[in-house]
Write a structure and sequence with these properties.
Largest sheet of chain A: 4 strands, antiparallel
Oligomer: homodimer
Number of helices of chain A: 10
Structural class of chain A: alpha+beta
Strand order of the largest sheet of chain A: 1-8-3-6
Largest interface: A-B, 34 and 34 residues
DNA sequence: TTCCCTATATGATCTGGATCATACGGACCC
DNA sequence: GGGTCCGTATGATCCAGATCATATAGGGAA
């Protein structure tokens, strides 16, 4: 397993600049684990024993709101460290992480993580960068919660398109199947409202639902909507 | 100036654990500057040349929304580093920082900041901790934006009380003068709504406005409201 | 003093979207 | 086959709070 783990590490931006020795010692303590769609990686309130680094697939970090509603705090993709803050702060996971599709990730125990941090300064630098990026992203999420729901949904699809959109002859394809509920959790609205907008868009508008994802047929219209 | 700067550094949590030598080299590059209430420390879009560390007083970080409305992203107090992310990422300030009262802070130029980061690993560790704390705080801000406006306002006052409330015989006193507009910017509502709630609370409710701040007369009632 | 500007205050509307209700197709299981 | 989920869909109703409008009390500046 160790050899393929080293290969995996070599492909992740976070670890690409490490020396071979660093990567080897990291591979020693990292274990490759897989999850199916909908499976929790960890659950809100659990003691944070492990840090996870996404290798393939996407995951959501959700926080259960007091009224029972869920709120999606972040979407993670390959190379992102999930649960890093909880592990670093030695607090229980403040939110749950759930696989949005079949994923694989590296699991690193807290104790190993801290040992690595002490012995590999370059790793600390990489983590610092990752954290500042997440701070910027979270700030944007805060700002994004303003305006009409339709604008927020439009902005969400523009962001998804930027992150993982693939040009096809029919338009921009987003290969990520999100339920209307998940769209609602991402934009801070209710299922009914997200369904209403999505079905209207499906008829006349700029985004179609496809099996396994979405298709943006009119990016320009989406940009106009995102401002309103 | 350097001597008093070292004294100042010794009192900030972020730098308390540094060696005397570390502090001396930091004091060499830090300059103590003052701002009056309402004065911008830096402005959104400006190139991020300097990092600021608040020594006394409070400041707000605001982002101008497209519709002209302002949004307060964070409140900073003594010991907090303002503009750290922009400086570290070498991007223009993504938001403005404005003094909420007469403040003083240390200004450190980007180049000096990076030089310090390289030569003083303990400093990097301290910054890492500060960043994770801010991540947690920002996440809470995201979650806090749910529920009725009155609940959000109640939660805001409970947080302010926890941060800087002082017990008096009449109740918990918050020595920070925020305008109704700033309360609105913090809770994501309009001036009119924040004025309505504050004047109702002033008559019958749990929070009174005083010169120079607020007085919480019924913390229990505020906690009840914060859940609604 | 008068003028102007800002913060606070309060009333009168209007509406986006939450809430409640009902319905329908598909997947899975017994 | 007939249940029982779950995701999607759509209509009907309702209300918190945005918006618009107007008013009053300081606080400077001239």
């Amino acid at each position: 397993m160790t050899d393929s783990t080293i290969d995996t590490l070599r492909r992740l931006p976070l670890f690409r600049r490490l020396s071979e020795g660093d990567r080897a010692s990291l591979a020693d303590v990292a274990e490759l684990v897989a999850f199916v769609r909908g499976q929790p990686i960890f659950t809100e309130g659990d003691p944070s024993r492990d840090l996870f680094i996404l290798v393939s697939g996407r995951a959501k970090v959700v926080k259960a709101m007091p009224e029972g509603r869920d709120m999606i705090l972040e979407l993670f993709g390959p190379g992102d460290a999930v649960g890093a803050v909880a592990v670093y702060e030695e607090i229980p996971y403040p939110a749950s992480a759930v696989a949005l599709e079949p994923i694989s990730c590296l699991r690193i125990a807290r104790t190993d993580f801290f040992r690595l941090l002490e012995t590999r300064p370059t790793l600390a630098r990489g983590i610092l960068t990752a954290l500042t990026h997440r701070l910027v992203a979270l700030t944007n999420r805060l700002v994004d919660r303003n305006g009409r729901v339709e604008s927020r949904l439009a902005r969400l699809f523009l962001k998804l398109a930027g992150d993982l959109g693939a040009r096809t002859d029919e338009g921009l394809h987003i290969p990520l199947a999100l339920t209307r509920q998940e769209l609602a959790d991402l934009t801070g609205t209710t299922v009914e409202t997200s369904i209403r907008i999505m079905s209207r868009w499906g008829r006349e508008g700029p985004v179609q639902s496809t099996e396994g994802g979405f298709l943006i047929t009119d990016r320009r219209a989406l940009e106009t909507l995102s401002l309103g």
